[in-house]
Write a structure and sequence with these properties.
6 strands, three-stranded parallel sheet, 4 helices
């Protein structure tokens, strides 16, 4: 047996219906479209988004002002008060340790430490961004901030 000998199983294929080929074909004249009406004409039928005459969803929704910046970078906020509550003195605060303590969901998420609250423990903070007030509080407590280049 060779590739050229392969054939579909008997009765598994049918010829396509050729409409509009005269009265003897069984699908002549109106070609199975019936007599008159919207669906009998070329290009007939309802357009995409037609909802039976009610105002379509695309026209019911408001056109909101402004635009969405596709280059926006979102940082997850973490306050120094959370660091005070969850970490011990001398700990390193980074994505892995924040995830381990349950403060963030993903270790590779972008994090910014904010200065809300007080901190008394000396921590080493290695996150993507640190606000000026948070940096001052961490360094005043004896810790240090190591931001990436």
């Amino acid at each position: 047996m060779e590739l050229k000998d392969l054939r579909p199983a008997e009765g598994s294929t049918k010829n396509r219906k050729r409409v509009g080929r005269g009265p003897a074909s069984g699908t002549g004249k109106t070609a199975g479209r019936g007599m008159n009406g919207q669906k009998s004409r070329a290009g007939g039928g309802k357009g995409a988004g037609f909802e039976g005459g009610q105002t379509p969803l695309a026209r019911r929704l408001p056109k909101l002002p402004g635009f969405r910046n596709i280059n926006r970078v979102e940082y997850l906020p973490v306050n120094v008060s959370r660091l005070e509550a969850k970490f011990e003195a001398g700990d390193v605060v980074d994505g892995e340790s924040l995830k381990a303590k349950g403060i963030i969901k993903h270790a590779d998420a972008l994090v910014k430490v904010l200065g809300d609250g007080e901190i008394t423990k000396a921590l080493t903070v290695r996150v993507d961004k640190v606000s000026a007030s948070a940096k001052a509080k961490i360094e005043a407590a004896g810790g240090k901030v190591e931001e990436p280049c």
